[in-house]
Amino acid sequence: MHQEATSMSVQQGTVAASTSTQTTTTVAAEDTVMVVHQNGGGGGGEGSGDDGGGVGLDVTVSNATTQTPVTMALEEVNLEITDDNDNVDLEVPFTNNAAEGSGGLSSVDMGTNYQISGPATTITTSASDPLDTKDGIEELCPVCGDKVSGYHYGLLTCESCKGFFKRTVQNKKVYTCVAERSCHIDKTQRKRCPFCRFQKCLEVGMKLEAVRADRMRGGRNKFGPMYKRDRARKLQMMRQRQLAAQTLRGGIGDMYQSSQSSSSPFGNIHIKQEIQIPQVSSLTSSPDSSPSPIAVALGQVSSNTLSQAVSNQQPALQIVGVQGTPSMMMADNKLWANSTTTSPHSLSPKTFQFDTVVPPSASVPTSSKMSPLIRDFVEAIDDREWQNSLYGLLQSQTYNQCEVDLFELMCKVLDQNLFSQVDWARNSIFFKDLKVDDQMKLLQHSWSDMLVLDHIHQRMHNNLPDETTLHNGQKFDLLNLGLLGVPTLIDHFNDITAKLQELKFDISDYICIKFLLLLNPDVRGITNRKHVQDGFEQVQQALLEYTVTCYSNIQDKFNKMLQILPELHSLAARGEEHLYLKHCNGSAPTQTLLMEMLHAKRK
DNA sequence: TGTCAAGGCCAA
DNA sequence: TTGGCCTTGACA
């Protein structure tokens, strides 16, 4: 029924000596193709295998991609989930599967797969574990969920996955999957499908180049310092979590104890679970149970389906008090929004040297002159949330990784931005009254334009930098987000930005233009065109009046702004094309809202 | 000199 | 073929 689109491409271990010869082995089984390019010869011949003396193995795992159909509406889902059980697991999956089958919904994402498990948030530690004795933490192998034995080939894994990865790379094994390349890998089933196991090893970040070409024993490799930093960070994080757990135990427990019959301080706490983004690695877990990303984003799935789906994804949870009481603690990035805490778990805006958001009112001329419509628009803008989501994602994605694929990371950020965009739209005037079918069509038509526009807005009005340093030391090109991954569009992007700056493009202009992009009555196939047209015209009229009233010194600002939109669209279209090609090449994460949007236009 | 992440060995 | 344990050796 559901056909899972899985494709991945990994190219690492490019360290073959210049004299090496290259052989290529291709093994095809039905629609599965696994190509192993082997750099033979004298790889690692000089010196040790350290510092990149990898085996020079380029592995491409690919298959024909089939599109995920957009799941059609069932019912509006309430993402607030009440856990009435006494036991609340605070268990966090590394990527996805580690915590699968553990009860799913009652879990709080704190960024990695430490276990802080219930009842009553007992922090699980075991004195027998190597990490426990030093760090007070226990971790699970991101591949199979077994206990980790240390850092192996780039990250913390168990002994068996270490051995499996080593044997596979050293012996240039070629596996095929007899199923659909989406086998679930856990401790009990890891032996069943080596193809999927190896694929998962690569997905979670095990490094081909860490396997030594010369098989030299002992010593250290280039990952040593990263392991060290990682370890220090985990230790700090663990302490932070212990504090958080204590806060929860004391704070929320005290607050609600009197009203709860439960012995647990967590009794009846509402756990609001937000879909963050579908993780690439979640592809290995029962894809048939996953609703379409856009369906999830638009709230089109039944609670049952969603429950199953979210348990397969990396959740970002908020814990909120009952009856809307402000929470004592908010999970992940929301925690840092109003906090000066320099948690190792957070990449706060401060860490990123991201300037404080300018309040909307500060960058619009005079709010008294604007129409109530525009005032409402502006008031609804939540740039702080945008920033926090961005940096929250960047930190969570790089937390346990020594090195991440920056393109993949960019796709994930874009995907998250898309989710925010959908969320914004579905709560917006005019749009929210439309049927889901129409909503989807409008979004599918405008998402990329709006992403580019959002980025321009963040740069112009919130001083979003063009680059940031990730936790693992890698530089992440934020500007690339605005270019949808096409560096050559930089001049085009700057040109558009310059023109808007010249027109004193402000936040009111931005939000109105965004509405105009969204409420495009010319989109084919929409059933309630009149409503869309009405919305479009009202916004257009409001913007016109606003520009005339507040920017009388800029001649024809309104029309000049509208003239820039085709340029914006052209840039976004080129970005879309680029992303689509990357996706077809297997270089972009699949099963994401982003990819579904890319596919939607090509239906 | 201790640590720990490589590779190696070998029973299951 | 797997996976637990052993050996090795650069580095702090």
Automatic annotation (TrEMBL):
Domain NR LBD: 369-601
Biased composition (Low complexity): 14-31
Keyword list, A-Z: DNA-binding, Metal-binding, Nucleus, Receptor, Transcription, Transcription regulation, Zinc, Zinc-finger
Compositional bias per record (Polar residues), positions renumbered to this chain: 1-13
Disordered as annotated region, ranges: 1-31, 36-55
Coiled coil: none
Cellular localisation: Nucleus
Principal subcellular localization: nucleus
Keyword Transcription regulation: yes
All residue ranges annotated as the Nuclear receptor domain in the record: 138-213
InterPro entries: NHR-like_dom_sf (IPR035500), NR5-like (IPR016355), Nucl_hrmn_rcpt_lig-bd (IPR000536), Nuclear_hrmn_rcpt (IPR001723), Znf_hrmn_rcpt (IPR001628), Znf_NHR/GATA (IPR013088)
Similarity section: Belongs to the nuclear hormone receptor family.
Name of the protein: Nuclear hormone receptor FTZ-F1
Organism: Nicrophorus vespilloides
